[in-house]
Amino acid sequence: MPPLPIVDGHFFIDNSTLETYTKCRRSYEYNGLRRRILRESRAGLEFGKLLHECLELRYKWEGKTGQSALDTTFDKEVEAKQVDLIEAFFRRTDLPDNMEYRTSAYAQEVILLYNKYYITEPFTVAKLADGTPLVETPFALELGTVDHPSGPVIVMWSGKIDLVSLWDNRDLMHVDHKSSKMGGERFFDDYILDQGQRGYAWALQRIVGQPVSHYVINGLICRKPTQTGTAIEFKRRRLPIDQDSILEWQENTLRLVEDLFRDHARAYFPMETAWCNGKFGACQYKDVCNVGRTGRGVLLYGNLFTDNTWSPLNDPHKTS
Ligand code: SF4
Q1: Measured in angstroms, how far is the CA atom of residue 91 from the centroid of ligand 1?
Q2: Is the pLDDT of residue 196 over 50?
Q3: I need a surface site. Which of 103, 107, 118, 284 has the fewest CB within 10 A?
Q4: Residues pairing with 174 in the sheet
Q5: Cα distances (Å, whole numbers) of residue 85 to 50, 51, 54
């Protein structure tokens, strides 16, 4: 079993890693500890990262200039740079070979449509006292202490907040960009009790010293184009959050980390099979879990899988 990533008595945990652990502890072992992911799953991650970078460009510009996409300089200062970014991305030689419909033209269509759809925003981009726009804001904050056989370990909650929006010059809300190939009527259901959103609210309150009462899910639905269906859709919703649920999230997360340390100490992360066939398809480790124990390492470290280089500070949150 690989060691836990504890550095100088600090254990860093982020939303995606925690979510993996809470879905199935075995998938945390493969993904978070052994750091292996299915090669195929990289396409969606890379495409989502590209869309995030385009949105980052736009909202940093809006935060700095106070202008909207209606401004005459938007085409040159934002849209042209977004197109450059997309074209540079597709010139890369290390892209996964299953990008399929996620081409340069498709990515440009998504972003140009997004800019038209949200030509003005109902919020402004929040800024720090020194004027820095709160866009793609990284954080690593002390959450609490958990016992470990080697002594007490400080748990650090880390990640990146996509965007902090200010509504009516008063209410702060973090915005989470979610690129998804699914969408559908129940798109927001998963985010109503989403523990990660409580974690981002907890971090934002620490960063700005103000209470957070809502968060925003900003969905970019990017389906495979078909003759009849709608390939590209935008869905956005503000969801409420209360202070007690943010405090409970902190307690809950520390207890989960305790459990994680316990699983690691006994060198066994149980299989939790309810997620083997999720609503977005089979778990990426299904073939691994489906072979006898002695064959799993061969599959996991073979060509079907690749190293998981995802980082909460460099990459967007994982979505469907
Ligand atoms: S296939 Fe099932 S048991 Fe195996 S890691 Fe995935 S969810 Fe867990």
Answers
A1: 35
A2: yes
A3: 103
A4: 164, 215
A5: 8, 10, 7
Beta-carbon contacts of 58 under 8 Å, excluding residues fewer than 6 positions away, are 69, 78, 82, 115
Question: CB burial class (10 A; 0-12, 13-18, 19+) of residue 226?
Answer: exposed
Q: With residue 111 as reference, give the H or E element that holds it.
A: helix 104-117
> At 302, is the secondary structure helix, strand, or coil?
coil
300 lines ligand 1 (CB under 6 A): no
Look-up: residue for tokens 């073979």?
Answer: 302
In the predicted model, is pLDDT for residue 275 greater than 70?
A: yes
Residue closest via CA to ligand 1's atom 7 equals 276
Distance CA 11, CA 152 (A): 10
CA of 28 to the centre of ligand 1 (A): 9
Residue nearest to atom 1 of ligand 1 (CA): 286
Tell me the pLDDT tens digit for each residue of 121-156: 999 999 998 999 999 999 999 999 999 988 999 999
Span from the CA of 286 to the centroid of ligand 1 (angstroms): 6
Size of the chain, expressed as the number of residues it contains = 320
Q: Supply the DSSP symbol for 318.
A: P
Instruction: Quote the pLDDT of residue 320.
Output: 47
Where do the domains of the chain lie? Answer: 6-307
Q: Are 275 and 24 in contact (CB under 8 A)?
A: yes
Q: Which CATH architecture has domain 6-307?
A: Alpha-Beta Complex (3.90)
Mean pLDDT of 113-117: 97
Asked if residue 111 lies in contact with residue 89, where contact means CB atoms within 8 angstroms, the answer is no
pLDDT band at 262 (very low <50, low <70, confident <90, very high): very high
pLDDT attached to residue 44: 84
What's the half-sphere exposure (Cβ side, CA atoms, 13 Å) at 123?
Answer: 21
- Sign of the torsion formed by the C-alpha atoms of 48, 96, 139 and 149: positive
Q: Is 24 in the pocket of ligand 1 (CB under 6 A)?
A: yes
Q: How many CA atoms lie within 13 A of 181 on its CB side?
A: 19
